[in-house]
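Appendix B. Raw example, untouched.
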Amino acid sequence: MKNDILQKDLKSFLSIYSKFKKVNIPRKKIIILRGQIDVCDVKGNYFKTFDLDIIINKYSYPYTIPEVKERSKFIERNQEWHINNEGFCCLDIDHKLIKMSQRGIHIGTFYRDVIYPFFCNTVFKQLYNNYANGEYPHEFEGVQSFYKNELNLNNPELILKVLRSIKTGKTPGRNQLCVCENDKYKNCKKHFESIEFLKNLPTQRILVDLKYFEEKLLGHPNNIGKAVRIL
C-alpha cells in the first residue's frame, strides 16, 4: 500500500539532508533513513558527526513515532545518556511522543525539532557535563512532570482516580461531573482534554503509570519499576 504523505515527506527530507539515504527492508513494514548528522553551533563551528538510523513505520505514518538508533557508538549506552544498550535513543518521554504522534509526526519537522536538538544536547553534555536546556527527569520523575505540566494533574490521588477510571472503562460521561467534581466533564477546562488524551494511550502505558502512582501514594518510591519502551 502506497503512503503518499510518506513519499512526499521523504522526498522533501532527502532533498534537504543529503547525508541520508532511504534503505528499503523487503517484506517489512518499516523503512530506514540511514545517514549522518553533523553537530555545529550557531556560528557554524563543527563538533562531531553521528551515524544513525531513523526507523519509520511506512503504513501508519505520520501517526507513528520514528525510532532513532545511534550507530557510531559515540554515546555511552546507559540511562544517564538517554540511550539503551542497542543504541536506541530516548528522545523524550513516551507520553509526549505519543501525543505528538496522535497529531501526526512529519519526519522533516521531527528531525529539526526533536532529533537534531537531542544530539546537540548530547554533545553539549559531553563537553560541559550538563545539558544546555536542562534535562527531563528519568523514569517516574519524567512521567510525573508530564502529568503536572502537560496534563494539569499534580494531585496523586486525583491521578489515581483518573487512571483507575480509565483502566475500568468508567470515565465520566460528557454531562456527568468530572473526576475533580468541580464541573461537568465536558466543561472542565483543566481535565477534559487531559483525560481524553490518556484514554487514547496504550493500555500497557496506563497500567505502568497506575503502578507508578500507586507506589508513590503508598510511599514506596524505591520499588518503582523501570519504564517500559512502547513500540
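End of appendix B.
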